TrEMBL record:
This is Porin family protein. InterPro entries: Beta-barrel_OMP_2. Residues 43-218 form the Outer membrane protein beta-barrel domain. It holds the Pfam family OMP_b-brl_2. It comes from the Bacteria.
Amino acid sequence: MLHLHRKKATVLNIVVAILFLFVAQDDLQAQFREPNLPNHDEKPYYFGITLGGNMSSFRTSLHSRFLQDDSVYVAEPNNNGGLSLGLSATLRLANRLETRFNPQLIFMNRSIRYVTKYPEGVENSTNNVKNIESILVSFPLQLKFHSDRIHNFRVYMLGGGKVDFDLASNARARRADDLVKLQKLDYGAELGIGFNFYFPTFILSPEIKVSQGLRNIHSRDANLKYSSVIDNIQSRMIVFTLHIEG
């Protein structure tokens, strides 16, 4: 039995040694292989397209009237998904510093959940969700700080600001009592991290960032039941984006 165990251990050692040689040989070849797009980092500027998904919600603060209201018990925002499509233009400022302009069209559906005293809606429920659809034209301007390139890989951090215009803004709408009105203009700050993967003909850059609105976009109407109990509404998003750049 001990003889058989020694044979198995010897065979295992040989297999591990062979695998180690293959991995070491591949790493050695990679070191001498020319990286993809070797002159790309010297370009003064370049362009790309972006495809993204987001998880968006509101950051709300309640009005003093909420404590006096006897019909609305709860008013809290929900998280909802959305999509975005855009273009990008990047300008090289220094060896590891770039600025990027990334206009996008963003589709999102944010909502606020209310618990009311009196039943209403489907099956006379007191649990009501008010959906607020938005189509944003967003204009972010960001600074990107890059690490050194490791063969066909590089990491970067970004920060900047944005201005948004809501094409579906309902601030001037005159509708039913269940309306929550939003202003058309918003602006905010962004912070994120991304990765550059160099391919023979393009660069694929997955990126995740947090976006926080700085403006109160709520157009409060004291005469509307669901609007009067809320004071401030600010936008917030977690965004995952794929940039395809050349």
